[in-house]
Amino acid sequence: MELTALSAISAIDGRYRKQVQHLDDYFSEYALMKYRVIIEVEYLLFLEKKKFLQLSTKTRKHIQNLLTEFGLEDAQEIKQIEYTTNHDVKAVEYFLKSELEKNGGKQALEWVHFGLTSQDINNTAIPLSWKHAIEYEYLPFLLNLNAQLKLLAREWKDIPMLAHTHGQPASPTRLGKEIMVFVERIQNQVEQFIGIPFMGKFGGATGNFNAHHIAFPKTDWVKFSNEFLDQLGLTRQQFTTQIEHYDNFAAHFDCMKRINNILIDFCRDMWTYISMEYFKQKTKKGEVGSSAMPHKVNPIDFENAEGNLGLANAVFEHLAGKLPVSRLQRDLTDSTVLRNIGVPFSHTIIALKSIEKGLGKLLLNHSRIHEDLDNNWAVVAEAIQTVLRREKYPQPYEALKALTRGNQAIDKNAIHDFIDGLKIDTEVKKELKKISPHNYTGIAIKF
């Protein structure tokens, strides 16, 4: 069967293909080949810059064009070579040698991949593609979502709302402040995230520059390689085995997992607010909420996001735990795992888009929020007993507990009757009677 969105095994390449197809540029087999070619070409040009070889203008221009014009036909050519070599990085090397030979660069052939092992390419190509995916896709999406949340927090900053602790009515809050909780949490994690460097490995077969040093013992290969990776926008790990140790990759995965957990928390809160009818949702003509119940408008976007965030976190967890562990100088388990870093990334992007879509459907239900506050006058008991403590009234907590705890209905009249029966100054009684669930919301948010 031909591979299509309908026949794909993974939902990423099937149902959600349109949402994440642009991520091919970072995580597909084609992308891996492209970034390997970028590293090999940049390395050859850097060797020329350091006077190890000289390229003709024609040759240099051609390989520089490969950096920006590498396409699917080039990737297919590399794949054909790999059928013979049975080695993916060697196939890239032979592809570049062929390109040089066809464009006047025969004298430069043996400078391609000079002194390198495959992981010098992989452990720079993959971190570079990951860096670009983070900077061009993930962070913009996440920061835009957080900006959208902050705008909603501003819009709703003066909306009083009944809070719930342990699922029970609690001291009122403001809706905008509840949204700002998530804005701050996400921002804190973003600041941690951007402090994690993008690192690569570049040091030969076992990290000691053995081949480089034996050929050119007077060259400072450590300085050379530090400068080369810095030029790429990466930081070189100074002490490695054949592979990079992936600790910073793991740190990225762990931080993304924490951010996803915050978003799961947010989705569950929004789902609950919708179920409490604090929000209604915009309907779209032709859409169906239930195959059996015509009235339903389900919070599917927040549910979809929660599911995708959970999937992403399960894979991030494995990546963060597995990649930093390798037998001695290296085993091959990192290779197959690294090919899947686009999976949790894609599920995360799908989730971010779902949350944005869900937020766009929300309609604030003022009457329901007002009604819930009106039906829960017992929550001002905290306020009353605190003022009474200030006035040195004996055992105010116990008095309010006796009034409010249990099955009896507590409304405005019950609270005011209780206040009238207190042996306190008239002015204090007036002060207490001004308190309601609608104004007992604490300190106003300052943005």
Total beta strands? 6
Number of helices: 19
Low-confidence stretches: 290-294
Strand order of the largest sheet: 1-2
CATH architecture assignment name of the largest domain: Up-down Bundle
- Beta-strand level of the residues, as a percent range? 5-15%
Overall body shape: elongated
* N- to C-terminal distance: 56 Å
Mean pLDDT: 94
User: What is the CATH C level class of the largest domain, in words?
Assistant: Mainly Alpha
Please describe what this structure looks like:
It contains 19 helices and 6 strands. The radius of gyration is 31 Å and the shape is elongated. It is mainly alpha-helical and 447 residues long. The protein has helices at residues 17-20, 24-27, 29-49, 57-69, 72-85, 88-102, 118-155, 175-194, 210-215, 221-232, 247-275, 300-322, 333-338, 342-361, 366-374, 381-390, 396-404, 412-420, 426-433; strands at residues 160-165, 168-174, 199-200, 235-236, 279-281, 362-364. The longest helix has 38 residues, at 118-155. A hairpin with a 2-residue loop joins strand 1 and strand 2 (168-174). It has a two-stranded antiparallel sheet with strand order 1-2. It has 3 domains: 18-113, Fumarase/aspartase (N-terminal domain) (Fumarase C, Chain B, domain 1, Orthogonal Bundle), CATH 1.10.275; 119-365, Fumarase C, Chain A, domain 2, CATH 1.20.200; 376-433, Fumarase/aspartase (C-terminal domain) (Ribonucleotide Reductase Protein R1, domain 1), CATH 1.10.40.30.
